[in-house]
């Protein structure tokens, strides 16, 4: 959809090659079809691929590629964008490398003219990676991986309830022939007891011993169920496959557990894409069109990927080479190299999972003198991932030897009721899959609660560090604690903010926990509404979304749900723009003439206009429609805040919480020793930076001083960041629906 509409927007003709490489080899209008703007309407919420895909033996042979070359030239194609795994992309890059020889052969055989030869002398290629295994190097995520992860996590969540009820063990096989990314993400997101992945095998005796140790220790501490995740490509250190039946036999024979096996199979591939995959695929599609248009004969074939939160362009040949080297390292039994060749997030996830899964029974990794008392608190509205952050924080603290404390019901709970207590391992073992906030949250800041009492309890419990999870009120709270260090010695500890709010309005980061969960709920809601509108033919819906003064959620919902437009507080709603949008609706319905997929959606942020409410906009559209169509309004409200956290929010919460603990370990001595020669508190830039925001900024995860962010990057009146980092996404979203912007 994105490639078709972006190419048309740039005055290109664009074709869809049906049935993969075999479509290139077979050629003709049956397989190579020119696409128009309306041809891809409604494709965003469809699973699979509407143009088909197939493996093609003929394309692996030179004669097959020669035939494909001629078919492309006959269709008038001089650039190719390929979405597939490393095999498809390798074949595409080889095709480009051979192109000069192939087209020369066609000329020599007089199958093309001299003019045609010069017109199609060069072929530009760009790759976008579609693979649920998330197995391509040089990108953090591949198209489809998080949709698959979502299916897996939901399935395990359901199985978990059965396992807990019957005190059973479940062995769950997930896809991943050469990459354990899916299994690893699922194990973290669902708090699995053990995971088998091809990148980190052990001997036959060792894996059974390690698994039985973890499972038996968890059971002895009161855990009622056991979940073991097995990647389909799991192996032992001698490259012998480890099957689910092998694992089941060990659990039954050695531990006597009532064990079941569940193979999720191809259910992992199906269903609508989650919001992140729609976002990723859309932005990669737009970037891919730019890449082939900007390409020259000397430009290496590009691959579009993502690094943290930024779309990036990599060399295709380098990415494929690195990916294949992982498989080669596994084949050579060099498993350390295999892990090192995966991206940093994979390496971190593996390290953190091992630490958390042994937190309750292994000897802590830090010596006694370095162990601290760390606390976590939630501030602001609930957001998906808050419980995952608490779970990861507590388990990682235990694995290191720290005492983890939870402050219940925010700063007011601490000041009024001394609501702070150490975290028990068994009580939090299922928190990863719970929405909301199990330790409670509210919007009260330390100054509003009583800063003196907050400092008193920090001293009473000898806290050495604090993690604050929340939105704008959490940022304000950390700023207040940092400013009060001079007056209260007990506040001279590292403090880290992990942004968590569905609005994604926290300065210092482009991603807040909960925003992905919220976006999934909102996009799913819009899909259902759109289906209703389509069934009723000529109807549009105005959907109101949350987000406060920040239009991020409305913009992302427009992009991921294919809405006709979105109205956000940063722009407001001008009558001229509203009139233009209504005229566009009228023209669209007039040209549709009752065909399918005619339901349309408009997204309005709750504070986009003080004068024009969602209901008023709906009424204006109905009045202006002149009977051609009607409009309805839909307000999902607090549905957007609730529900089971998405795998992205669960895994990022885990990653952020553990990074925050590591930051506090590293910075404790800096702020603790911040005194001058006469014992007065000395606030330097280095000391100030120990009160930090942990955020994603473009392609990096960073800790940045809360003082700098609060003073220089925060719009206090609107309670958000000054820079609108998602402005280019608005332009793309508008372009892909053909919106005329005033």
What does this structure look like?
α3 (62-75) crosses α4 (86-108). This protein is of the alpha/beta class. The mean pLDDT is 93. The strands form six sheets. The protein has a seven-stranded mixed sheet, sandwiched between helices. It has a four-stranded mixed sheet with strand order 3-4-9-10, sandwiched between helices. It has a four-stranded parallel sheet with strand order 6-7-5-8, sandwiched between helices. The longest helix is centred in the C-terminal third of the chain and has 26 residues, at 647-672. It is globular, with a radius of gyration of 28 Å. β6, α8 and β7 form a beta-alpha-beta unit. The chain has 26 helices and 23 strands.
Brief sketch in words of this structure:
This protein has 742 residues and is α/β, with parallel strands linked by helices.
Share in helix: 40-55%
End-to-end distance: 25 Å
Class inferred from helices and paired strands: alpha/beta
Strand order, biggest sheet?
Answer: 13-12-11-14-15-20-21
Strand content: 15-25%
User: Radius of gyration from the CA trace?
Assistant: 28 Å
The geometry reads as globular
Q: What's the tally of helices? A: 26
Number of strands: 23
Low-confidence stretches: none
In round numbers, the mean pLDDT is: 93
Main sheet specs: 7 strands, mixed
């Amino acid at each position: 959809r994105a490639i078709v509409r972006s190419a048309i927007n740039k005055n290109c003709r664009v074709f869809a090659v049906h049935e993969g490489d075999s479509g290139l080899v077979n050629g003709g209008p049956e397989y190579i079809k020119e696409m128009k703007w309306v041809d891809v309407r409604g494709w965003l919420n469809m699973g699979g691929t509407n143009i088909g895909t197939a493996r093609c033996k003929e394309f692996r042979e030179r004669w097959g590629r020669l035939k494909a070359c001629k078919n492309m030239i006959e269709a008038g194609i001089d650039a190719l964008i390929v979405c597939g795994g490393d095999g498809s992309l390798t074949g595409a890059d080889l095709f480009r490398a051979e192109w000069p020889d192939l087209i020369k052969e066609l000329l020599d055989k007089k199958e093309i003219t001299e003019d045609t030869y010069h017109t199609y002398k060069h072929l530009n290629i760009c790759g976008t990676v579609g693979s649920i295994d998330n197995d391509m190097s040089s990108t953090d995520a591949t198209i489809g991986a998080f949709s698959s992860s979502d299916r897996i996590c939901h399935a395990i969540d359901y199985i978990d309830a059965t396992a807990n009820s019957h005190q059973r063990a479940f062995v769950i096989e997930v896809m991943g022939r050469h990459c354990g990314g899916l299994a690893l993400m699922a194990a973290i997101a669902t708090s699995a007891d053990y995971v088998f992945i091809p990148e980190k095998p052990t001997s036959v005796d060792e894996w059974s011993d390690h698994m039985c140790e973890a499972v038996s220790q968890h059971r002895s501490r009161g855990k009622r169920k056991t979940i073991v995740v097995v990647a389909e490509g799991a192996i032992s250190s001698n490259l012998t496959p480890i099957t689910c039946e092998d694992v089941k036999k060990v659990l039954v024979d050695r531990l006597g557990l009532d064990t079941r096996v569940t193979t999720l199979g191809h259910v992992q591939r199906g269903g609508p894409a989650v919001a992140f995959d729609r976002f990723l695929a859309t932005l990669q599609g737009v970037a891919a069109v730019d890449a082939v248009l900007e390409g020259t004969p000397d430009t290496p074939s590009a691959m579009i990927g993502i690094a943290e939160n930024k779309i990036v362009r990599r060399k295709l040949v380098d990415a494929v080479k690195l990916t294949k080297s992982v498989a080669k390292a596994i084949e050579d039994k060099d498993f350390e190299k295999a892990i090192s060749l995966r991206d940093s997030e994979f390496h971190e996830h593996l390290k953190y999972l091992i630490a958390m899964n042994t937190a309750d029974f292994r000897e802590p990794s830090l010596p006694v003198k370095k162990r601290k008392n760390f606390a976590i608190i939630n501030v602001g509205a609930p957001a998906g991932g808050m419980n995952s952050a608490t779970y990861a924080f507590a388990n990682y603290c235990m694995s290191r030897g720290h005492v983890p404390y939870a402050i219940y019901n925010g700063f007011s709970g601490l000041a009024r009721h001394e609501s702070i207590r150490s975290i028990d391992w068994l009580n939090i073992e299922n928190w990863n899959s719970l929405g909301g906030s199990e330790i409670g949250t509210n919007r009260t800041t330390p100054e509003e609660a009583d800063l003196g009492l907050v400092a008193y309890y920090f001293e009473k419990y000898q806290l050495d560090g604090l993690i604050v999870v929340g939105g704008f009120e959490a940022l304000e709270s950390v700023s207040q604690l940092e400013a009060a260090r001079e007056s209260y010695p007990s506040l001279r500890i590292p403090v880290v903010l992990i942004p968590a709010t569905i609005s994604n309005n926290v300065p210092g980061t482009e991603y807040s926990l909960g925003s992905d969960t919220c976006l999934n709920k909102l996009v799913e809601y819009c899909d259902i509404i759109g289906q209703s509108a389509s069934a009723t033919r000529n109807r549009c819906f105005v959907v109101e979304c949350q987000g406060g003064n920040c239009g991020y959620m409305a913009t992302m919902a427009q992009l991921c749900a294919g809405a006709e437009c979105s109205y956000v507080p940063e722009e407001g709603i001008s009558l001229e723009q509203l009139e233009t949008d209504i005229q566009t609706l009228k023209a669209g319905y007039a040209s549709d003439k009752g065909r399918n997929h005619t339901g349309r959606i408009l997204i309005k942020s709750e504070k986009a206009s003080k004068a024009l409410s969602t209901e008023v906009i709906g009424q204006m559209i109905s009045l202006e429609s002149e009977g051609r169509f009607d409009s309805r309004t839909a307000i999902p409200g607090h549905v957007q805040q609730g529900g089971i956290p998405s795998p992205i929010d669960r895994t990022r919460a885990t990653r952020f919480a553990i990074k925050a603990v590591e930051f506090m370990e590293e910075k404790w001595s800096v702020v603790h020793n911040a005194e001058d020669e006469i014992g007065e508190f000395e606030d330097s830039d280095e000391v100030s930076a120990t009160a930090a925001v942990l955020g994603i900024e473009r392609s990096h995860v960073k800790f940045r001083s809360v003082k700098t962010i609060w003073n220089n990057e925060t719009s206090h009146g609107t309670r958000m960041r000054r820079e609108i980092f998602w402005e280019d996404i608005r332009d793309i979203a508008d372009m892909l629906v053909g919106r005329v912007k005033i």
